[in-house]
Amino acid sequence: MNRLSDSTSPYLLQHAANPVDWWPWGEDAFAEARRRDVPVLISIGYSSCHWCHVMAHESFEDEAVGALIDAGFVAIKVDREERPDVDAVYMTATQAMTGQGGWPMTVFATPDGTPFFCGTYFPKPNFVRLLESVGTAWREQRDAVLQQGAAVVEAIGGAQAVGGPTAPLTADLLDAAAAQLAKEYDRENGGFGGAPKFPPHMNLLFLLRHHQRTGSAESLEIVRHTCEAMARGGLYDQLAGGFARYSVDGHWTVPHFEKMLYDNALLLRVYTQLWRLTGDPLAKRVARDVARFLADELHRPGQGFASALDADTDGVEGLTYAWTPAQLVEALGETDGRWAADLFTVTDAGTFEDGMSVLRLARDVDDAAPEVRSRWQEVVGRLLAARDTRPQPARDDKVVAAWNGLAVTALTEFVRFVEIDNAAGPESAAGTPNPTDRPALGSADNLLAGVAIVADGALRDTAEHLARVHVVDGRLRRVSRDGVVGEPAGVLEDYGCVAEAFCAMHQLTGEGRWLTLAGQLLDTALARFAAPGGGFYDTADDAEQLVARPADPTDNATPSGRSAIAAALVTYSALSGEPRYREAAEAALATVAPIVGRHARFTGYAATVGEGLLAGPYEIAVVTADPAGDPLVAAAIRHAPPGAVVVAGAADQQGVPLLADRPMQDGQPTAYVCQGFVCRQPVTTVDHLLDQL
């Protein structure tokens, strides 16, 4: 019997029936280890992790292994998504000891939490020998174990230190970061690095903004090529939309099949912005279908967005998604089945396991003849219907505040651009909308409009959930499930991502309450998370004290807390007109600047925010009675410089600083453009607005 059955974490609940006496993370577990004078086994993972499942089946579900664990250790199970602070500390220790990290993470620690031996996945025979060896060392070589632990704590304390060198995040540093990315770019397959290959969403966002500032054709081409390669590969679900976590190879063919909320939110921003800047039809389609995936597959009404879809189905990786040529024929008939096999590169040899293939798009279909596009879409619909009859992967329906903030921001950008794209029609060479040139809406346009409507409902519902459930007594909680908030306190990335989302909601709705909420979260972050020299810790000053206080400045799978809070501070400052928040963002980015030019792949979001600061950012207010349909609003959104904020509505709306004291000129809708708090003459025509942008 263990103590996980009342957890809000799906990952912990997966282990509630193990023959291991698991404890959740907490002081009670460490007190029990002190009482028994035994070391602690800390096992860290997450619900959609394939190798976490493998180790669970091999070891944690085995009666003999469970007895060995219980006899010599107090076992603690941690969901890294619920407790990123705990994960960060022990991941740093694991990397310090082994040179690498990953999940499942396996840590042996003293009863005060000091790690002395760390690793990741261990096959059952190796794990059994490890348990025996660690137990013997604890009993017979205690002094050496404690010395090892002290050395690890010293190492991770240095790795998490704040107050190092600072420098302004200048144009030269951002140019150096873009040049480094161009040097490391995989010119054949897109992306950066080899296998395993992760979607570099934050680097792509940075390169798009860098292209806007500098006109760099190379930066834009890196984004375009990488986006096309990912979207045509197995990383992307060719039937239902949505991206998997990463590709196990270097050319996007076979994914690790879990689909994470944060990846898809960040990639939605990339494809939306690529579509906005270039009109690329593939980017438009992928943005639409990722938004649909988020709204249909991960959103739960009244509860926010679920964290992930599992990598496995019934314990088999890829069972839901892979096909053989015979299965395509069975689903589509002989003629269409062979046509689909050719289009999706499904061969007798297979690209995956046991002769199965992951669907990849062999040819460009977005610019194909109408009859080809029609056939492709009809085949996709029939294959998806057939796939829906298969067993489906489990969903981790835990709601993580930071990741939901990323999703709200991404969907807001998507919805706003769809609205103005549908309303304004094609633009003339001067940028003036020509409604008479607008073609009749076809099925693809109707689908896009429908997705935008559903996405709009999902993002608003989620923002309300974050405000209503996750904000407790003015502080953020990290997770909720089934509408009930969990105990873990929000970390810095939660405050940054949710505040940025509330700023996005303020721009979407014109409602002052969202800006007020964002400001309250940012004030709390400045009071509770700030570090000497302008940096930030990842945990609050009154949070649980771990063996080290994490303060990671690098962007990894998600924006670092420091990058996220800087992004929110910059946006809030532009919307509120209060420069002290901008100054706090500049100070935070100055602590990251020394590594931006040298380690660009791990500072993508910080560099993205830096480009916004270099641009101003622009503050654009449009005083109008028709915020959704005014051509001035459409032009502002379509041509917004990096990091710009756009607010539209009636003058002097309560709680909307950008509309204060800004009347219409001569009774006409009027745009006010400022840059870094310096304003230009109000304008009433699209051409004059574009001149200022």
Radius of gyration: 26 Å
Strand line-up across the major sheet: 1-3-2-4-5
Q: How big a fraction of the residues is strand?
A: 5-15%
Q: Percentage of helical residues?
A: 40-55%
Average pLDDT taken over every residue: 92
The termini sit apart by: 64 Å
- Judged by helices, strands and strand pairing, the structural class is alpha+beta
Number of helices: 24
Assign an overall shape. Answer: globular
| Strands, total number | 23
Report the sheet with the most strands, covering strand number, pairing sense and barrel closure. 5 strands, mixed
Unreliable stretches: 426-442
List keywords for this structure.
23 strands, 693 residues, alpha+beta, 51% helix, 11% strand, globular, four-stranded mixed beta sheet, single chain
What does this molecule look like?
Helix content is 51%, strand content 11%. A hairpin with a 5-residue loop joins strand 4 and strand 5. The chain has 693 residues and is an alpha+beta fold. The strands form eight sheets. A five-stranded mixed β-sheet has the order 1-3-2-4-5, with helices on both faces. A four-stranded mixed β-sheet has the order 21-20-22-23, sandwiched between helices. A three-stranded antiparallel β-sheet has the order 8-11-14. It contains 24 helices and 23 strands.
